[in-house]
Amino acid sequence: DRFVMSMMVPMQDPQLAVREIERLAGHPRIVSIEFWAAAERIPFGSRFYWPIYEAAQRHNLPIHVHPSTINTIAAPATSAAGNVTNYLQAHTSLPQFYQAHTISLVLEGVFEVFPGLKIALIEGGFAWAPHVLWRMDKEYKGLRQQAPRLRRLPSEYVRDHVRFGTQPIEEPKKVSHLEQIIDMLGGPEMLLFC
Fold this sequence. Notes:
By secondary structure, the protein is α/β, with parallel strands linked by helices. The protein contains 8 helices and 6 strands; from the N terminus they run βαβαβαααβααβαβ.
């Protein structure tokens, strides 16, 4: 009775994904919709995915993003640099996908259009996030006309709509450094225990 699950939807066909969400959303054990994170042909902020986000918001189901090194067989690349030669490189490169999709979601204005949407980024680490938040805020200040839907700093949308899984957690030699990263991210409330 303790187990709950995430529904897997066909991301490559948003209309079918919405039909699957409508079919399963009322199930008491389904608590989220799963996306896989890889080098997608279409970034998550694209309007292509908006029917899925609308259905997720309507049913109060967060999007649970999980890495897929197996899915990279069908993806355009296994890293931001192109195709790597082994699993070690592919697995180490996973945070690159999370960074790119987070940037896309925020700067395309997804959270303005769908203010009830929540995203959980699982198994992609989180030590990268403070840098990305700072960089988005800095670049937005000079290029805000390229993100016309935004009404606030990009980092504020992440703090309101995104959570990061703790597994696999970065393990610096000094525990105090990890505590500093968590503080830079916005505190432990930004994390989900995984």
